[in-house]
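agent> Task received from the user: take the single chain below, predict its 3D structure, and emit structure tokens. No templates, no multimer pairing.
agent> Plan: (1) validate residues, (2) run structure prediction, (3) serialize to tokens, (4) report one or two observations.
agent> Step 1 OK, no nonstandard residues flagged.
tool_call: predict_structure(input=
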Amino acid sequence: MPTSQTINVYHRERHIKAIQNSFEVNNRSPVHVTSKNLRPAEVMLLLPYFERHFPQGLI
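)
tool_result: status=success, residues=59
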């Protein structure tokens, strides 16, 4: 019968593998959900509107 320690190690390994997989997926080119042949013309970064989120008096 597995102990709680072996279960925790197994859970930790699965968690690490899931994190590594998320990094690999992030490095792939974006693919449209319904039309797999559709490719983006340009990929733009999404950044927060700093003036709104961090007013001058708060930082």
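agent> Step 4: summary for the user.
The first helix runs from residue 4 to 26.
agent> Done.
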